[in-house]
Amino acid sequence: MAPGIDGLPAAEREVEVSGPVARFLTSLSPRILVRLRLGLFAFEWLPFPWRFSRLDPVAREDFLHRLERSRFRLHHELLLMAKILSTLGYAVTPRVRERIGFETSCALADGSLPEPAGDLGETEPRGEGEECDVVIVGSGAGGAVAAAMLAEAGLDVIVLEAGGSFNRDNYPQDPLEAIATLYRDGGLTIAEGQPAIPVPVARALGGTTVINSGTCFRAPEPVLEEWRRDFGMEWSGDLEADFAEAEDFLRVQPVDPERMGRNGQLAMEGAAAIGASGGPISRNAGDCVQCSSCPFGCEIDAKRGMHVSYLPRAVAAGARIRTGVEVDQVLTEAGRTVGVHACRLLPAYRAKSDNQGARRDYTVRARVATIVAGGALGTPELLLRSGLGGKQVGRNFHIHPACWVGARYEEDVRGWDGVMQSYYVDQWEARGVLLEATFTPLAFGGAWLLGAGREHQESMLRFGRMGSIGVHLHDRSAGRVGLGAEGSIHARYSLTRDDADRIAYGIARAAEIHFAAGAVEVYPNIARVPRLRPGQLGDFEATRFARSELRLEAFHPMGTARVAADPTAGVCAPDGSVNGTAGLYVADASLFPTSVGVNPMMTVIAFAKQVARSVAAAAA
User: Fold this and answer.
1) Residue 7: exposed, middle, or buried by beta-carbon count in 10 A (0-12, 13-18, 19+)?
2) Angle between helices 497-516 and 262-274 (to 10 degrees)
3) Which of 137, 153, 331, 608 gets the most CB atoms within 10 Å of its CB?
4) Beta-sheet strands, E only, within 221-352
5) Distances (CA, A) of 619 to 137, 151, 155, 544, 612
6) How do beta strands 489-494 and 190-192 pair?
7) End-to-end Cα distance, the chain
8) Which residues are catalytic?
């Protein structure tokens, strides 16, 4: 996969790749591992009667090119799998990063470090259990904000988190270790369907706010009006004060166009050239002007994730936080929740939570309420295991399908300089398409580069001249999160024909912006059209692509415990309470009645504030 050219080392012969990747794979769930083993077995034997690993280098590269040119979808999926795994181990090695010039760093405008976050107290679980007024399962944007508000209202709060606690003093420095430690299933949680779509979410104190880009959009007014009109959420039109308070506390401000980095500036220039509306993205990172470590945790904690903002605030008001606790059951008595049962994980085994020998029973009894805030994957998982919430639990699964549209420029772009996600284009919002200038680290973005073997390495050498725009869809498609036979979550997502067409339209608009900014070629991330050159966009737009041809990712799961005025149409009432179980609430993106259409963190915060008010009122 990486034979070594022009100063790039050869994989295995000069730099170890398979060993670190094999160690990384131990962090994955058995379900994911089975799929990978089957894929690798198929890849190994696809050149039958020969095996890939026993071909000589020339034959291997020829085989890779034949896969790339194949008209069979399975061949492209196997090739992409092999590129993802090999690039993941290869791109993080110091010699490769040095040859490409890729650097990871974060900085404020004045060069200072942010003030240290407040104390989180003792986070190790105590004994076999504890008691409180309110127990909150999950510590992301929903759970953390609810914890702060309820603790400040005088309630005794415990927050439970399955992952560990990290900050700028102890984020894993090795990228593979960071992915294994900070992400659920090593970032390989998959929504099955055509196509299968990775949905990476965090597994750490602070939830996905630890590893997201820090982008802060308010929910669009038309979406809030739809929720008010069709789903009984009368308060959804009155969130101005909640948004404003959160923006002030999280130091949300727009990225400085002068210092956003060339990737964002090219998107800005291209959008202006074609008259497309947009603007600098607002982020919860104050005057941060350099960030390329967000997916591994902000190395100076300039980004105000929940672990350095609302959770310290909750602890200062008296809340307790417990990490390494996997909740598996909501406890009820006479139709009312009374707390949760969990397993606490011994610290040495927290990256491998399937290790039964490392578990100890742990129960938290809650006198007032239980709030589930595990995200749109974790929340339905817990409700389904507990048999609560009704038939709608896990349904209405939305994800904002997204794809990466790269482009090669004649000038140096060095997308890792400046801010990773920096400029948005909302010209086509009416069609559900939002574009965001987004540059991802080489370990993530490298697998999407053009070619295989030597050609792929040539693409890596040009990484410094790559620009990148993300296409983000306000989806009407939906899926479902359920439990597999072995008890782990099983997510499926059915991309509709119309949504597939709208994604292709978004790809074309991203390509148009790239070309207007001076790109010499664009990479639409569709195997049938590996590259576009100026003048070819019309042919691309005249082509209709099968859903399975799209290479998608998604970062915003939502809707799986949605609010609805009609109890038969949702899981929760408009106040966030779960239908049929007194004292049980949800406070995360699971509550969204539909796709929100923009990065959801600020909307989750606003929802959590409403739920916290409901709980506090019930406790009064």
Assistant:
1) exposed
2) 100
3) 608
4) 253-254, 278-280, 282-283, 288-291, 320-323, 325-333, 336-345
5) 19, 12, 8, 56, 11
6) parallel
7) 63
8) 556
pLDDT confidence tier of residue 619, bands split at 50, 70 and 90: very high
The 3-state DSSP class for residue 99 equals helix
Is the CATH number 2.30.30 carried by domain 254-283+402-474+496-551? no
DSSP 507-554: HHHHHHHHHHTT-SEEE-SBTTB--B-TT-HHHHHTPPPPGGGB--B-
DSSP structure class, residue 364:
E
Question: Is 50 exceeded by the pLDDT of residue 490?
Answer: yes
Cα dihedral 161, 163, 168, 174, rounded to 10, equals -170
Q: What are phi and psi of 439, to 5 degrees?
A: -120, 125
| H or E element, residue 137 | strand 129-137
Alpha-carbon span 381 to 373, nearest angstrom: 11
**250/51 Cα distance (integer angstroms):** 54
CA distance 148 to 566: 30
Q: Look at the chain and count its residues.
A: 620
* Residue 417 pLDDT grade (very low, low, confident, very high; cuts 50, 70, 90): very high
Task: Work out the number of other CB atoms within 10 angstroms of the CB of residue 189.
Answer: 23
Q: Where are the domains of the chain?
A: 1-100, 129-186+204-214+217-251+284-393+561-619, 254-283+402-474+496-551
Instruction: Please tell me the distance from the alpha carbon of residue 224 to that of residue 236, in angstroms, as a whole number.
Output: 6
Spatial contact of 144 and 332, defined as CB atoms under 8 Å apart: no
Nearest residue to 296 (alpha-carbon basis) of 205, 182, 404:
182
Across 254-263, 356-365, 554-563, 566-575, least confident range:
356-365
Given this model, what pLDDT does residue 392 score? 98
Query: Which pLDDT value is given to residue 513?
Result: 98
Query: SS3 for 54?
Result: helix
At what angle are helices 175-182 and 18-25 packed, to 10 degrees?
10
Bridging pattern class, strands 433-438 and 466-473: antiparallel
CB 144 within 8 A of CB 159: yes
Could you list the beta-strand ranges (E) of 474-514: 478-483, 489-494
CA distance 315 to 332: 27
Give the residue carrying structure tokens 């593979």. Answer: 176
Q: Does domain 129-186+204-214+217-251+284-393+561-619 have CATH number 3.90.1150.10?
A: no
Q: Are strands 197-198 and 278-280 parallel, antiparallel or unpaired?
A: unpaired
Per-residue pLDDT at 447 = 85
Q: Using one digit for the tens of pLDDT, what is the confidence trace for 148-192?
A: 999 999 999 999 999 999 999 999 999 899 999 999 999 989 999
Q: How far apart are CA 378 and CA 356, in angstroms?
A: 20
